[in-house]
């Protein structure tokens, strides 16, 4: 019996072993087949996905695709890829495939097809973005693909009406708009310093290779340069993130030169662009360093510092999940790292609001009649693929914004607005942008300026009153601390804020200061060299920065080539920048450079299109005056006169 029992046990064991091995072989065969399907599906979109890897990093200088239609609408998720990939991904997920196996599938495809700038970054990048993607599809199995693709890539597919027709509530009792009074020329002015897009890299190592085919080089792992000229420099290098020495130099120069500043706006993107390395520890280290160092540098001054967050602050770059997903994708640590150095100077209820949603509002200590409104404009970012899951006024921010503005108006306060992504950027979802601009149009009388970053180069954006050609607000989209093929920069604004109750807080002048990388790194004293490349009143021939003046300045550039060249030098943060490519006599180039300055509402590009057509068709004739460049020919003067009449009709028609 013992022998029979042993034989029986042996047979059972062999049967189980055979069954398991057959099952394993079948599973391996199934995986191989699925892997082949994934690779075959991705193959046609290889270039699209390669561009995505660079797009998500946010840099231009090292980007091999940067020269391809740089002014086009943002396509973080290409339309064709989106509409084809979503059903395919859903089909795979419906098989019950574990998340780990899905990550392995996509990682193998990434490596096999060379989708990433370097193969080693495939796995960490895929892992980061696959987790929220699978969460979304499993949490929302009935997700409308057209809504998803149409929000992430506006115009790609039709979006459900209820997702685009929502409106925030506004107090419609708009007061009469009066002319903007400016201070006498002799009065003292208040200074505002603006730092944005620092993109610090605490791993930057002087002497290491600046050429690595990645968004941020200049690290130990990038090895030694082929020659000394390609080695990372002390204060920064064109193809790398900003080193600590460069950040310290910028902060210290601003402190020494503008120690009497009233305000500092720190508007996001504190960390380098190697997004596959992001994580709570890595990001927190950079956020705390940028934020705390600023406070320490200005600790012996009375300046008020207002920080916020950018799209690079989350541990998964660009992604701001809705409240329903916070249990799995919390960002509390991020908000805390940015606000902690300043929590003693900002009211507790506003600190708590920021820690939850990323926006807040403060009454200035310098003047109780001035309010600073800090927005989380990342919530309109079409590169945030959580946006389609809860697109109707995320975190109730716009309604809060409208209510805050209404209180400010009732208390007779003036308002400064700061954010990271300009609502006039094509990165901002048009529906959100439109609702935001309804608030700006309603409260134009008390808004004295808007400050943003994100774009790395430098420009203005004009907001027009709804349904008119009347300029009502200026957005200052300022240059980055990140080199990205340019010099690091910070900006200073002068406001009418030193006259007590008579202060209007209108912006009177604008300066741009650059850390000249070539001069600084070649300096035998090993000291940073700064240059002032803009005094708006001098270089742009304006008497102030009120909307009408900036609007006129932009219009004058259409035919004043010297003025336009001066703008181009500042736009790219210095004419020694490798990215400085003046348009010369190329009117198409000029049209691309200027027309987007008339977009503050991405749902209405009519002013952009009108300016673009004018640039391409206007008859500019030479003038004899030295330094004049080009001026309007008589036929164009008639056109401009008609435009002026249109502005006046719009102005008074809106009032009566």
UniProtKB/TrEMBL annotation:
Segments forming domain Saposin B-type: 75-160
Residue numbers binding Zn(2+) 2: 269, 311, 420, 454
Highest taxon in the source lineage: Eukaryota
Cofactor: Zn(2+)
Name the UniProt record assigns to this protein: Sphingomyelin phosphodiesterase
Protein species of origin: Folsomia candida
Compartment(s): Secreted
Catalytic function, reaction form: a sphingomyelin + H2O = phosphocholine + an N-acylsphing-4-enine + H(+)
């Amino acid at each position: 019996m013992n022998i029979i029992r042993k034989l029986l046990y042996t047979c059972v064991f062999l049967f189980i072993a055979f069954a398991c091995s057959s099952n394993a072989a079948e599973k391996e065969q199934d995986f191989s087949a699925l892997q082949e399907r994934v690779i075959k599906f991705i193959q046609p979109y290889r270039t699209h996905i390669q561009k995505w890897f660079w797009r998500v990093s946010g840099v231009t200088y090292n980007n091999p695709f940067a020269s391809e239609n740089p002014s086009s609408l943002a396509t973080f998720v290409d339309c064709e890829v989106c509409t084809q990939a979503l059903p395919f991904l859903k089909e795979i997920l419906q098989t019950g495939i574990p998340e780990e196996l899905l990550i392995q599938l996509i990682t193998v495809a990434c490596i096999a097809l060379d989708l990433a700038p370097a193969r080693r970054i495939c796995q960490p990048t895929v892992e980061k973005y696959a987790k929220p993607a699978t969460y979304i599809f499993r949490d929302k199995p009935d997700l409308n693909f057209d809504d998803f693709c149409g929000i992430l890539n506006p115009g790609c597919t039709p979006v459900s009406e209820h997702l685009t027709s929502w409106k925030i509530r506004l107090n419609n009792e708009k007061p009469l708009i009066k002319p903007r009074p400016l201070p006498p020329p002799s009065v003292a002015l208040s200074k505002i310093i603006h730092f944005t897009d620092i993109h610090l890299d605490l791993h930057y190592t002087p002497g290491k290779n600046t050429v690595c085919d990645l968004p941020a080089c200049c690290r130990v792992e990038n090895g030694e340069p082929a020659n000394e000229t390609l080695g990372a420099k002390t204060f920064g290098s064109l193809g790398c993130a900003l080193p600590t020495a460069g950040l310290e130099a910028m902060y210290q120069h601003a402190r020494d030169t503008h120690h009497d500043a009233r305000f500092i706006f720190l508007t996001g993107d504190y960390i380098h662009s190697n997004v596959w390395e992001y994580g709570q520890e890595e990001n927190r280290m950079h956020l705390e360093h940028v934020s705390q160092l600023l406070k320490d540098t200005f600790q012996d001054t009375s300046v008020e510092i207002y920080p916020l967050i950018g799209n690079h602050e989350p541990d998964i770059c660009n992604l701001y999940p809705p409240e329903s997903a916070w249990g799995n994708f919390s960002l509390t640590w991020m908000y805390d790292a940015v606000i902690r150095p300043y929590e003693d100077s900002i009211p507790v209820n506003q600190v708590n609001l920021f820690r939850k949603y990323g926006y807040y509002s403060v009454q200035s200590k310098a003047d109780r009649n001035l309010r600073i409104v800090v927005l989380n404009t990342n919530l309109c970012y079409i590169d945030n693929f959580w946006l389609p899951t809860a697109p109707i006024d995320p975190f109730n921010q716009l309604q809060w914004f409208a209510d805050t503005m209404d209180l400010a108006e009732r208390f007779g306060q003036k308002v400064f607005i700061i954010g990271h992504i300009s609502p006039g950027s094509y990165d901002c979802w048009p529906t959100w942008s439109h609702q935001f601009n309804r608030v700006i149009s309603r409260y134009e009388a008390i808004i004295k300026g808007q400050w943003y970053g994100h774009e790395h180069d430098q420009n203005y954006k004009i907001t027009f009153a709804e349904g008119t050609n009347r300029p009502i607000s200026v957005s200052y989209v300022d240059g980055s601390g990140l080199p990205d093929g340019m010099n690091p920069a910070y900006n200073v604004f002068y406001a009418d804020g030193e006259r007590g109750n008579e202060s209007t807080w209108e912006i009177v002048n604008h300066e741009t200061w650059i850390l000249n990388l070539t001069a600084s790194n070649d300096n035998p004293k090993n000291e940073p060299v700064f240059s002032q490349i803009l005094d708006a009143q001098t270089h742009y021939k304006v008497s102030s920065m009120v909307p009408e003046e900036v609007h006129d300045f932009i219009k004058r550039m259409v035919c004043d080539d010297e003025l336009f060249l001066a703008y181009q030098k500042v736009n790219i943060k210095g004419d020694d920048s490798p990215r400085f490519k003046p348009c010369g006599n190329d009117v198409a180039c000029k049209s691309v450079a200027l027309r987007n300055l008339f977009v503050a509402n991405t749902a209405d590009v009519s002013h952009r299109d009108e300016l673009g057509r004018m640039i391409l068709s206007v008859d500019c004739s030479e003038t004899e005056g030295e330094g004049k460049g080009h001026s309007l020919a008589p036929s164009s003067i008639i056109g401009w006169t008609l435009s002026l009449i249109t502005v006046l009709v719009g102005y008074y028609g809106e009032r009566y």
